[in-house]
Amino acid sequence: MAPINVGLMGYGFSTKCFHLPFIEPNQDLNVYAFLQRARAPVDTINMETGVHVTADYPHAKHYRTAETFFADPAIELVIICTNVETHAEFAEQALLAGKHVVVEKPFTVTSTEADHLIATAKKTGKVLTCFQNRRYDGDYLTISHLISKKAFGKITECEIHYDADSPAWISKWDSPGLIPGEGMLYGLGSHTLDQALQLFGRPTSVTAFLRTLRSIESETDDTFTVVLQYDGDQKDLLVTVKTTIASPMERQMKLFVRGTEGSFLKFDEDLQADQVMAGMLSTESSFGVEDPASYGLLSTVKEFDGKIQTFDKRSKKYVGKWPTTSGRYLSYYEDVVAAIRGNAELRVKPEQARDVIRLIELARESHNKGVSVPWS
User: What values do phi and psi take at 360, rounded to 5?
Assistant: First the structure.
């Protein structure tokens, strides 16, 4: 079967770090075209790598306008890596042009835009999904496995962190006002809120606290705490999703889960992005494989796995460093291909991506009003 022709919109950091390293090894995908508005340089031979697509991908087509890009009938799958305010517009144009679509996170700026895109995808019969690659992080895969095996009994608490101590990339958030689609909730929160929704479902209520800790006065958040509460069988569950830019720690906290039968505490972020930036290929055997020093600590009332845990006399718990499942971003595009070809159900559904945006809206509403707000 011929590979699916891929057209990528944008040639910035996201395209080069999070998409191409996992598209190129996939034999079912062909890097066919790019939309990059910059004019092709005259001298591409002596150009630095990563500046222009015509130098890095001389066999791919180069388009400078969205109109000519979407008009190419050979493009089958569009990857949208442009500014967030263009996501909804470009996704709709791609769907109407008969293309399948992957949208970088955040999916859209508003849930209304997301609803419109979902309706358009259903009308055109094309696959629409969001790039939630963090579902393929080792820590998320690990905690998903432990929850599925009921390692914690009835879960009462979960904290999901994605902290970044004074990251340089927030310097671009220099406006005193709130710019739609900008800020940490839409940024890192798009990943961690998605993980919370996948693990525990839609909450009953949302309570949020947003802060600006960088050195300017701004309504654009760089730090947040979102608390999700539930009802029914999960009425005792409290889920906290946090990001802060003030975290001078040797190792950043990642996950904390506690229940009636056990707990899990893990530090350190998934390493795949750092490996790509260090020049490692995503097909190398050590890619996504975590150092045992970063494994999380699993403690249980009863023995969960005798090969890993030992009985701790002081705490009277079974304790052990639980091996982290290897992260694998390659699987994201393998799953997209399977959905396009009708071989498997779409892993990251657009309705799920829509719920993330709705959760962000409710978090902002909660913060502005200073109250908990119901899911709606």
Answer: -65, -45
Q: Alpha-carbon distance 108 to 132, whole Å?
A: 13
Model confidence pTM above 0.90: yes
Chain centre to alpha carbon of residue 314: 39
CA distance 230 to 201: 9
276, HSE (Cβ side, Cα atoms, 13 Å): 18
Q: What is the pLDDT along the chain (376 residues), one digit of tens a residue?
A: 899 999 999 999 999 999 999 999 999 999 999 999 999 888 877 888 999 999 999 999 999 999 999 999 999 999 999 999 999 999 999 999 999 999 999 999 999 999 999 999 999 999 999 999 999 999 999 999 999 999 999 999 999 999 999 999 998 899 999 999 999 999 999 999 999 999 999 999 999 999 999 989 999 999 999 999 999 999 999 999 999 999 999 999 999 999 999 999 999 999 999 999 999 999 999 999 999 999 999 999 999 999 999 999 999 999 999 999 999 999 999 999 999 999 999 999 999 999 999 999 999 999 999 999 999 9
Angle between helices 189-200 and 138-148 (to 10 degrees): 10
Q: Which of 243, 232, 240, 231 is nearest to 374 (CA)?
A: 231
- Please answer whether residues 227 and 208 qualify as being in contact, where contact means their C-beta atoms are separated by less than 8 angstroms: yes
The amino acid occupying position 188 is L
Exposed, middle or buried: residue 43 (CB in 10 Å: 0-12, 13-18, 19+)?
exposed
